[in-house]
Amino acid sequence: MLIMASGGGGPSRRRFKKELNDDNEEDDEDLSYQIKRARNNVAVKKSRVKSRMQMKEMKKRVDELQNENDSLEMKVTLLTKELSVLKELFMSGHFKLLTLLNSHI
User: Fold this and answer.
1) Higher pLDDT, 37 or 16
2) Phi/psi-derived region of residue 2, left when phi > 0, alpha when psi is between -120 and 50, beta in every other case
3) pLDDT (tens digit, 9 = 90+) per residue, 35-67?
4) Measured between alpha carbons, how far is 100 from 98 in angstroms, rounded to an integer?
5) Can you tell me the mean pLDDT for 73-97?
6) Among 41, 77, 95, 96, which is disulfide-ready with 90 (CB 3.0 to 4.6 Å)?
7) What pTM was computed for the model?
8) CA atoms of 23 and 44, how far apart (whole Å)
């Protein structure tokens, strides 16, 4: 028969408690890390969604401005042609004739 003087040969209660506390602290740190990671993942998703929305809005605005630009370019072309015709009429003397005709009517 073997007699143990220090309470059974296993770890002392104090040492066992310390190991349990260390494990609990590691679990707490692990849980804290997991919570931080989860919050970060949510923030990243939110940021990416916001970024996508901003890109969609910017693309829409670019398309609107491009359409407006195309319309204005067509207007400039039309007005340039009109100006050219009016200059030609004025230089050829037809403008004076039209003015005289309109003034007698």
Assistant:
1) 37
2) beta
3) 999 999 999 999 999 999 999 999 999 999 999
4) 5
5) 85
6) 95
7) 0.52
8) 31
Q: What contacts 19, CB < 8 A, 6 or more positions away?
A: 11
More reliable by pLDDT, 33 or 96 = 33
Compute the distance between CA of residue 101 and CA of residue 105 in angstroms, rounded to an integer: 7
Q: Which token pair is 15? A: 């040492």
In degrees and rounded to multiples of 5, residue 2 shows phi and psi of -110, 130
C-alpha R_g of the chain: 43
> CA-to-CA distance for 75 and 21, rounded, in angstroms?
80
Asked whether 6 and 12 are in contact (CB, 8 A), the reply is yes
Which amino acid type is present at position 100?
Answer: L
Question: Please, what is the angle between helix 13-92 and helix 94-104, to 10°?
Answer: 80
CB-CB contact of 11 with 19 (8 Å): yes
For residue 30, which amino acid is it?
D
Give residue 6's region: left, alpha or beta (phi > 0; psi -120 to 50): alpha
